[in-house]
TrEMBL record:
It is a multi-pass membrane protein. Keywords: Cell membrane, Membrane, Transmembrane, Transmembrane helix. Pfam families: VTT_dom. It comes from Gluconobacter cadivus. This is VTT domain-containing protein.
Amino acid sequence: MIAIGPAMASQPAWLKAATIIVGTFILEDVATVLSAIAARAGEVSIPLALGALYFGVAVGDLGLYGLGAAGARWPYLRRFLTLPKRERTQDWFSTNVIRIVAISRFVPGARLPLYTACGFFHAPFLRFALTAVLATLVWTTCLFLLAMRVGGWLLAHQGGWRWAGLAGFVLCIVVVGHLIARLQTVSK
């Protein structure tokens, strides 16, 4: 959600949904938080916001799998992928695809390398897709509800400073995600 305010409220539902979906491809957690705040402010309906979020995140996850699968076919693309170094990796990914997808949904910074690796090592697509969709439903709903609560409080109690509070909240979500991702790469 780029803008929250009267201009957004007057937009057609399809444009609101498209904006949310595109936002998930850029920064899905930020898109989730901003969509929740927009829903709390009455700018977008909750079902529309959640539906667009679920769709955008799931399509993005399936796209990462597809990117990994394409990297397995084309060596030129392979050099852009971050893949784990492990013997018997294909068997390991096939055996543990549900666990990998479910856990990485909740660990910032883990989805890109692990979802592309699932595609690269040909983890079973149906198990990958079903787990990705279910984990998305849980994670996105939890983050959305948290953001609605915090965003609603900021909108109701911060007066003229509410936009600074909302910006700080969004920035906090981004920074925490990046810090956790950085800690993961340092600890490897």
